Amino acid sequence: MIEFKNVKKKYDNGYEALKNINLECSEGEITALIGPSGCGKTTLMKLINRLHNPTSGTITIAGKDTSSIDPIELRRKIGYVIQHVGLFPHMNIGRNVATVPKLLKWDKERTRKRVDELLEMVSLDPETYRDRFPSELSGGQQQRIGVIRALAVEPSIILMDEPFSALDPISREQLQDELIRLQRDIKKTIVFVTHDMDEALKIADKIALMKDGEIVQYGSPEEILRRPANDFVKEFIGEKRLEVYQDTPTIRQVMVNNPVTIYPHRGLAESLKRMEGKKVDSLIVVDERDHLLGYVTVFDVLKEYDNEAIKVKDLMHSFEYKVESHMLLPEAIQQMHERKASYLPVVDESGVLEGLLTRGSIVGYIGKEYDGEVEGVL
Amino acid sequence: MHDYGYFSVFIERMPDLLDKLYEHLIIVVIAIILGCIVAIPLGVYLAKTSIRWIRSLIFNIVNIFQTIPSLALLAMIAPLLGYNFKTAVVALFLYSLMPILKNTFAGFDSIDEEIIESANGMGFGSMERIIKVELPLALPYIMSGVRITTVYIISWAVLAGLIGAGGLGELILAALSLNDNPLVIAAAVMAMVLALISDFVLRLIEKLSTRRGQTAKQ
Predict the structure, then answer these.
(1) Contact indicator for B90, B165 with CB cutoff of 8 Å
(2) Using the beta-carbon criterion (under 8 Å), do A99 and B122 form an inter-chain contact?
(3) Using CB atoms, which residue from A74, A82, A136 is nearest to B118?
(4) Could you report the per-residue pLDDT of B193-208, keeping only the tens digit for each?
(5) What domains can you pick out in chain A, each with its CATH number?
(6) Which domains does chain B possess?
(7) Among residues A336, A338, A304, A340, which one has the least CA distance to residue A322?
């Protein structure tokens, strides 16, 4: 974990690049530092490997104050990827990737093995690429090398300074996807500087949005999209993105509010009567305080109908899966589809039944929503 | 008096020619080596220093040496160090400084900021970075400076004969006073050939120092 405590940075010319930053970058997560140029995001990142030093405040890595670590040693333990790749043009790919292992005096065999392993990790054939020179590679390939060079000695922290911003859109997408895929396996603590909100939303676990040397908002992409702290954040995220996000319905907007329920100690005749009355084929079982318990179907009831001693609770099935009402509709639909469920119970945090998400309610919602637009198409 | 023509002079006087050529070569090589020892580190320092006035001061001083006519420079140094080999080497050394210094500076100056940043970020110490990353990248420039200097100095070294420092210049002066035109020409040709061969060899080294990944530098 990287922790910034009351960090300030003032340049010699009096410019205040960072004003009292407090931030924690969690272990194994990608933290994106984002903001307009000049907001201090790169400066903040460079404090971590001491390419800059803070004017006041402390930065700790796993509890250890970085100012007590020799900067050269510190940097060798932290992966570093920059925007312009920064591969050494006079060294072939193999030697470029082996840069830090060489600085740490790894033996030849171990270095060679690691280089091949890393090349394979980003789908570049070692035999083909090891002996090539950076200028013989495409921009996307060069940045792949830039990334694996940073991974060479398995640092637990990797700093990335707008690593994909100089690439064409297609390579950028590819590299972002690859980073997400890699991160799933390697689980590094990554600090990622970017000015591209889409990129941050796509890859980051946490986003720190910065302006004029301050963190304006810090949170998960979801939190920032849902609850932008102020107008600056809204503007930075972009109206379009917010609209798309805020237009996505939550389950609350779609669910049936008054599902047909029954208590567990009721008899079967009563159950059947309720089903007939409400024209449903199953009942949701809840206790007196509306806590969700399970469900009974009409088939169970009919099968045991003659046995008066049997109560609802004896025939009850429990739900494999339930959803909460703030969940987004697309997510719930996907779950219904995967589980082949015809409906899902909606509960709050304490397990109280709030409603039902049924196929009918979804179709009804979509019908209502597209009513105006679909007219004339048919 | 001599009894050889413009061609036979090479056969008749070969031992003398080779002897003086060897002396000539020694003067040049020592001057260039001294020039490299001084100018290359100085060039690196100037490229790295953030103190601007030092940079312009040193460039100006070195420039001044360059503008002093070679004959005058020899005449100025000779009374101090004597009419000998040493004086010739010192004068030529002063001449060699400028091109090597300029090219070393240009070579280090041409290295992309990103390369230096990524080297720092990966944990190179400054000395380590200069030697392992920057020097190889600047080498083609430096070698080009060394080559240009060498070719100039080979021709200027002829003047060393004037102060009795040896070399092909001495042979030319002696031949002139004896009206031995074939020998004058022969000695001059030797100097030319030496310059051409040096140029060729150094060009080759320059090419080899330009790795495959780099574009060839002028």
Answers:
(1) no
(2) yes
(3) A82
(4) 999 999 999 999 888 8
(5) 2-247 (3.40.50.300), 252-369 (3.10.580.10)
(6) 18-209 (1.10.3720.10)
(7) A336
